[in-house]
Amino acid sequence: MMFLNINEKKEKANAISYKIDEYIWGRKDFVTDCPYGEKGRYTNAINKVGDLGCNTCEWQVRHDPSTQVVMCSHPKVEKSKIKKLFKDM
User: How far apart, in Å, do the first and last CA atoms of the chain sit?
Assistant: First the structure.
């Protein structure tokens, strides 16, 4: 049984879009580096946004592969360029 802290406030999530290089044989390469510099636990290489390292990150809130957007609640959250684009419309 899990007990949740009701008084705990959740941080706002930031939208990060990423790019993928797809190949004929079904292989995918994630191109975009993590903007917050999160590194892999064992490799110490910067995680790629949308890749397995990003999906297991504690700060990820939601991942939508169809639109290639990851919602991240990292404490160093800066204003997203995506939100600015939608705000101007």
Answer: 45
